[in-house]
Amino acid sequence: MTTSRRIAVVSAGLRQPSSTRLLADRLADTAGRQFAARDVDVDLRVVELREHAHDLTNHLLSGFPSASLEQAIGAVTTADGLIAVSPIFTASYSGLFKTFFDVVEADALDGMPVLLGATGGTERHSLALEHAMRPLFTYLHAIVVPTAVYAATSDWGAENAGDGDGGDGAVPTGLTRRIERGVREFTELVSDREPRQAADPFAVPTPFEQLLAEN
Amino acid sequence: MQFGIFTVGDVTTDPTTGRTPTENERIKATVAIARKAEEVGLDVFATGEHHNPPFIASAPTTTLAYIGAQTERLILSTATTLITTTDPVLIAENYAKLQHLTDGRVDLMMGRGNTGPVYPWFGKDIRDGIALAVENYALLHRLWREDVVDWQGRFRTPLQGFTSTPRPLDGVPPFVWHGSIRSPEIAEQAAYYGDGFFHNNIFWPMSHTKQMVGLYRRRFEHYGHGPADTAIVGLGGQVFMRPSSQDAIREFRPYFDVAPVYGHGPSLEEFMDQTPLTVGSPQQVIDRYAAMRDDVGHYQRQLFLMDHAGLPLDIVLEQIEILGTEVVPVLRREMAVGRPEHIPDAPTHASLVAAAGGARDATVHAEDDVTGRAAENVEAAR
After folding, report:
1. Domain covering A3-213 assigned CATH 3.40.640.10 in the classification
2. CA distance linking residue B260 with residue B10, whole number of Å
C-alpha cells in the first residue's frame, strides 16, 4: 500500500547558486529515490531561508511572522521529517539558520526525524555538525539520525564522483556514500513512524476545569 | 459599542526633538489624555500596569481614582491588571474601593504581563504564568462574590474567614475582561466565566486575532453563557491621522521608525499591512476599523493606543480630538448597521445591577468594630 510523508528541507545558504542548497538538493533527491523504493510518496517543501532573511529579523523585533514566513514555518512544523542544511560560519551554523529555529515554537519539532547537513570551505569544520548543529536539534527534542553529511568545497570536485548507485559505473565518493547512508537512516526512521499529527490548541483547547485542577 | 483610549504609560523620547518627558510630565499627561477622552465623547480610558522604567504605569488605581474625580461619564479600566504578580486580595480591595469612589465607573482587564523580571521581583516564576492567572483569578472571583472566604492554593498564603472590604458597590463586582495575545488558555478562562475577552492585536495580524476570538466565542457558548455571537469581545488598535494620508505618513514615520517594540524592524507600510496600525486620513481609519467586525463578528469595545512612540502631549490631545469628533461618531453609526438586536453591549455597572435584580447594599457589618469580631460569626448570627 502506498503511503505518503511530508518532508521539509531547510537550506540556509546565502549565495545564489549556493553549495548549501546544492547539498540540500542532493539529500532531497536521494531521499525522494529511497522513499519511492519504499513505496512512500513524498510531499517535498523546500524553505530557502535567504528569501526570508528580512522577515526573520522583523519577526525578532516585532514578535510576529509575515504571511510568507508563517507559511515557511508551517511547512517545517507540519512535516513528518526535516532535512536541515547550513553553511558553517565561525565554528557553527550560520546566524540565519539559528534565527529561523529561534522563531519556530520550541515544541514544534518534538519527535521529528531530522537529517543534518552542512557545507564549508574545508573539511576541518566538519565536526561543527556534531558540536553545534546536533545539540540544537537535541534541545528541540527532534530525533537526529546518526549520520550527518558534511560537504567541503573539495568534495564537489572529488574524483570518480557519481551517484554511487552503480548505474553509471562510477565509484561512489565519500560524499555520495555519506549522503546515501544518512538518507537511508532518515527514510527508514520516517517510513517506520506514523505521520505526525500537529496539535492545534485552537481546535481542541484544554478544558478550564482541567486548568483549575492542575493548580 | 464602546470606544476608548488605552495607554501603556511609557516615557519615550520624542525622536524629532530629542526631548524626553519627565515622569511627572508623563503622569500629568495621562490625566490630561483621560480628561480629553471624556471631553470628546469617548467611553473608556484604560491604563496599563508596569513596574519598571521607562513606564509610569505602576499604582493604576491611584491614577484611575484621580481621573475618576475629574470626570463624570468615563469608564475607568485597565490594560492590563497583572493578575499573575499582584495579590488578588489587593486587586479585590483596590478595585472595589474604586467602584465606590466613582459610582461604578470601573471595569478591569486581566493580563499576565510579559516583563520577565517582574515575576521574581514579586516572588513569582514566569513559568507559572498561566497557573497564576488561573488560580489568582479564581480567588478574586470568590472574594467579590462571597462575603466570607476560606481558601487555600499554591501561590498565596491561605485565607480563613477572610472578608475583602469594601464589598463591591451595590453587591455587583466590576465587569472583567481577560486580555491575551496568544494563549488559548486565557480565551478559555474568559469563556468559562462568561467574562469579556480582549485581544490586544496592535502588534498582530488579523488572522491570529480571528483565531483567538473564534476560540473564545465557541467556548463561551460551550459553557452555556449564550450563543457565540453574544460573547463580549474587545479589540485594540492604533492610529495617526491628518486630513491627507501623505501628511499623516510623513509626520508619523520618524516616530514609527525608532518606536519601542517595532522600531528598526518592518517598514511602516509593512506594519500597516500586517497590524491594525492605520496612518492616514480619518476616513481611512473609519474604513479600516468598520471592517474589523467582518473578521471577529460584532464586538463591544474598541480601544485605541494614541500616546505612543514618543508623540508629544499636544499632538496626542489633537489626535484624540480627531478620533472623538471625526472618527468615532461615524464608526458608531457604521457598527450599528446590520447589528442584530440580540447582540449585547459591553456590560456596565448599571446593566449588571439591573441584571442582578437591582442594587443592594453589600456592607458586611462587624458587631464590634474595636475588637474586630470575625465576620463569619456575624454571618452565623444572622
Report:
1. no
2. 9
